[in-house]
Amino acid sequence: MGEGLPVFKNSSVFRRFLISYVIILIIPSIGGFISYRTSISVTQSLSIENSVTQLQKSQEILERRMAEVEGFTRQLAINQELNVLMNESDNVTNVYGIWRAMRNVLTFGQTNDFLQNYYIYLANYNLILTPGSSYRPDHYYEASHYNGMSVDEWTKQVLNKSHRSEIKPLSSFVNKGVQTSVITYMQSLPLDSFYDSTPAVVVVIIDEKIIASLLSGLTERYGGWVHISDADGNTIVLQGSSEPDIKKLSTDPAFDGTKVSQFYKDDLVITTRSSTNGWVYQAGIPRQVLMENANKIKNMSWLITGVALFIGLLVGLVLAYRNSVPINRMIGVMKEQFGKDETVERNEFDFLSGNIANMITKNKLLESELNRQLPLIRDAFLKRLIAGEFESRDEIVSAAMQADINLLRGVGYTGIIQINGYSGMDSVEILNELNATRLLLKQALSEMEGPIPMTDMGSDKIVILFFFREEEAIQADEEKKITETLEKLAQYVFNEYRITIQASFGDLFSSVVEVSHSFEQAKQTLEYAVYMNKKGIMWNHETQVENNTYYYPMDTEQRLISTIRAGELDEAKRIIDSITAQNLNQRDLSIEMKHQLVGEMKGTFLKLLDQKTFMEAPLFESVKRRIIDIGFSEPLETIQGEFHTIMEELCGFITNKKKDTHIQIIKQMYQYTLEMYTDPELTLYRVAEQVERPEKYISQLFKEVTGVNYSDHLVKIRMDQAALLLKNSGDTVDEIAARVGYNSSHSFRRAFKRLMGISPSAYRQSCDE
């Protein structure tokens, strides 16, 4: 009897334990099904996202190519040889000029496959110029013409008509006997032509196949279709489908053209719209292609689930048998603890603890992923900063805040640390070793100096930025501190890891916009140190390199132009001062090089004046004359002062123009408010639509100019009008509330009392008395 009881208990526990394991084994099956459904959903979402991205990238490439086509026509518009031909009289035949135009002008399009087939029509010569030859219009029409369009229609609609960046939709076309479909880009010359007929017309014929090649990834990879239409609904490109199907799609009420992606019948339809020209891009991808990866996941999930169930059953049997005896003791403890048998039967604690552990693990993974993304953002910001890709200080400060990088006062040094001994080595083992070495250097430097902005440069270099931490920091003291830090770092990594390094630093940058310049100096200093076999740490001012060529890089010129156009005088002066210092203090320029430098800088300002913003300004002629009158033989300091004066005038003009524009906008807001204050639906959004400016922009502008919020101004207008009506009319308070734009008389009374200090009835009574 004593022996039978344990056997009975063990059998009961064994059965319960086995049942619990079977239930546990069912859970992975459910989990497998949920995982399968989730995997399908995630895979489908990723496929949709990738398809949308691919369509958007194709759209970007196409728009960039079309922008290059437009830029090509603008190049032709400023070409002197072509302008001479356009302005010659009808009775003059400049054969040599035509030959030069064919030779020089018509070779611009060799770098863009959208410009493979184009021509220029000269009205005064009645001549068509192509890259290979020149034709009379009727001769050209015989070789290349639109199907269904006669030569007279072609001459009237294309050659003798004014065009402003006009695009002719997809049309059937015969090019030298070959049937194809094309779109046509047309631009009259000169660019500001507004008459029916113009001196010249540039016509670019773009084959549909060339445009379709940009979208081949969607049609060839997925076996889908692509359709591009202009803002009027005319077809630009159609691949993989037919025109009737596209029309049926667009007219079907079940299809929502405003959605980026949606399933329509058996296709995923992706729709994007260009913000520049209004073109609509649509791509259709078969559903079965999207589900290909999901089906693989499905089969793998069921296979793993089946194997896991089989193995789980075997393991459950073994564990149930082996744990029968010890589980009795656990049941006894639980009975003593809870006093109920149901607690043991439910056995919920194992599931709960397992789920909690799983949640903690996933939470840590998510936190780790978020922390991992921040260094990537910081690294991207630092790479853009040292490359000089930012155009203004405000843009740099905003990007730094996003990357959680403290720029302090924006004053400091840019340096490069190079790991020695790996030059020319690029094997996988060496690259792995360099990755580890760079990580060790960063960790060591962070331990010595705290968080310092650092980014990799190639496989064996690290770029570092040292910002001044104190307001009254002295340049010499900061250089000494940096030198001591780098020497300490070099000694530490050599003693610990037998790593040797050398470092170079550029000159002090007094603003974050000069970081890229300091970085270039650091690169040149490092090259000089390697060339001269200098070890340790070297500063740019220690190189004593004399240059016979002037310093005026293209990115500096573009930044100067952008800064002046934005009206940022201080930044523009800082750029000019930096250029002058570079060429005056660190270079030994010959007279010829100095003359070329001054000519380049004068050319920059003349190029800036030729932009529409300044061409219409009253100061155009005077400033242009001042630029031209700058002498080449004057000292650079004098020329620097002249440029400062010119920039003050230009930036002052931009500032005043902004102020005039702001005042005009405020006047429009005042006028529109006086006209529409009786409308209860009048909001800042409606006003923004009227003045054609963003809502947030006009809200801030109104506050800056007038000192009050627009909502308060609207309330004051309504209350002033209400006071006049209360005084001079016999309307009731409710009627007056409706007349001044209030749907609720209660809201009107509350607003009137808040602004006037008394209720409307009391105000009317005081007026009567």
TrEMBL record:
The keyword RNA-binding does not apply. Residues 667-766 form the HTH araC/xylS-type domain. One of its GO terms (molecular function) is DNA-binding transcription factor activity. SUPFAM superfamilies: Homeodomain-like. PROSITE patterns: HTH_ARAC_FAMILY_1, HTH_ARAC_FAMILY_2. Coiled coil: none annotated. The chain crosses the membrane at residues 18-36, 300-321. Keywords: DNA-binding, Membrane, Transcription, Transcription regulation, Transmembrane, Transmembrane helix. The keyword Transcription applies. This is Helix-turn-helix domain-containing protein. It comes from Paenibacillus monticola.
